[in-house]
Sequence to fold (166 residues):
Amino acid sequence: MKTIHRLIILQVFLLVQLSVFSCGQNEQHTTINISKLKTGNKKYTALFKKDSASLTLSINSYGKATGHLLISYYESNPMAVSKSTDGNIVNGTFKGDTLFADYNFKSDGNETIWNSNPIVLLHKGDTLIMGSGRILSYLGRNYFDPNTNIDFKRSRFRFVPAEAKK
Fold:
């Protein structure tokens, strides 16, 4: 009876080891290639019809990016959009040529309630193209639906270096 228990325990142990070892074997490991992306502080601007946006990013050698994003939507009341960049924070990481980030902001003149949305920016040449996609929410956290593609072709904002806009 003891040998049967030992065999069962040994089989369970081997199954657990095998499953732990095999987990992640089929995952594709994405390497961060930011060789074409210059690190440091960057300033970008974008226009879409009567809407405008400005983006400042600080990018380190590991692909981490932090900065500020201010989007000004055209409205008949010019006082409706805050001109302050306080609180419009972007934090994210480059995966390949794409920045996946969270955009934390205060809206509608409410200085106490924070909103957070995911953003994705494709790095092409010296341009950052803002993508759009289906956003899901779980436990108050917004994220892009992993089962749908992010669209960069119909981008609302294409950010170019601020120096190039002159």
